[in-house]
Amino acid sequence: MSQTYLHSWTPTGDKRKDKRVETALPVVVGSLTGTAINISMGGMGFTPDGLGLVPGMETHCILKFSSGPITLGCKVIHANRDMSVFGVQFLGLDKEAFEKIQFLITHPTKGL
Fold first, then answer.
1. 33 lies in a domain?
2. Within a domain: residue 40?
3. CA quadruple 43, 47, 52, 55: dihedral, nearest 10
4. Mean pLDDT over residues 43-68, rounded?
5. Secondary structure letter of residue 110 according to DSSP
6. How confident is residue 24, by pLDDT bands cut at 50, 70 and 90?
7. Phi-psi category of 30—alpha, beta or left, where left has phi over 0 and alpha has psi -120 to 50?
8. What is the pLDDT of residues 33-46, one digit of tens each?
């Protein structure tokens, strides 16, 4: 049996611990409406419809699933240079939130 060697490696640049899937889920963060463009068990990428978020702020978010909204605590972790996309961390998930987000991640083609 011959050995297999790794000839090259291309890092992905993604160091997140949780699997993240692309989505277009309507969301409210604080008082701003917008869209979750990706989501994981730990947080989401959020594009707001307006201004008002600042990295470091803690607030709440409402994820508007078709089966009903869920509300959770969250923290704005970072923003891109033009403040059009924010990284938002979830602060604790109850059972319902955990199950809805997990289903979305494991069954992305089933809808929201």
1. yes
2. yes
3. 40
4. 95
5. G
6. very high
7. left
8. 999 999 999 999 99
